[in-house]
Amino acid sequence: MSPKRSMRAYLVFTGSGPILLLSTYPKLTDERLVDKLRYKGIDKFIAYEVDLDAVQRRYEHSFETVARDLEGVEDLRVLDFNGHQIMANFSLDSLGDPIKFG
After folding, report:
1. How many CA atoms lie within 13 A of 91 on its CB side?
2. pLDDT tens profile 35-68
3. How many domains does the chain divide into?
4. Cβ-based neighbours of 86, under 8 Å, separated by 6 or more
5. What residues form DSSP beta bridges with 20?
6. In the 8-state DSSP scheme, what is residue 86?
7. For the CA atoms of 41, 81, 13, 32, what is the dihedral angle to 10 degrees?
8. Residue 56 sits in which domain range?
């Protein structure tokens, strides 16, 4: 099975700025994922699911390495935490409905 099949990408706006996550959890509000975010100090967020193929095209050098690290596990990885780079890579107009937590 392709690791991409169950993987999702999220643009998450936190109190300290945007981060781009890859996750193999079934949804962003999965309690296990939320617990990991809380552990990192993220109690509230507004997030958008981002097209995985678009993420792979924009992060071709790091995507495969990070995706491979998620193979066969339910977990999350931060693909990018550089807010300027994230905002340059994604148009806010192309984002769908927000996922609000907290």
Report:
1. 3
2. 999 999 999 999 999 999 999 999 998 999 999 9
3. 1
4. 11, 18, 19, 20, 80
5. 11, 80
6. H
7. -50
8. 3-101
Residue 29 DSSP label: T
Q: Which residues contact 83 (CB under 8 A, 6 or more apart)?
A: 17, 18
Instruction: State the pTM of this model.
Output: 0.90
Q: Is 45 exposed, middle or buried (0-12, 13-18, 19+ CB in 10 A)?
A: buried
- Nearest to 29, CA basis, from 12, 16, 15: 12
Q: Return the amino acid letter for 51.
A: D
**Tokens encoding 86:** 């994230």
Neighbouring C-beta atoms of residue 16, cutoff 10 Å: 10
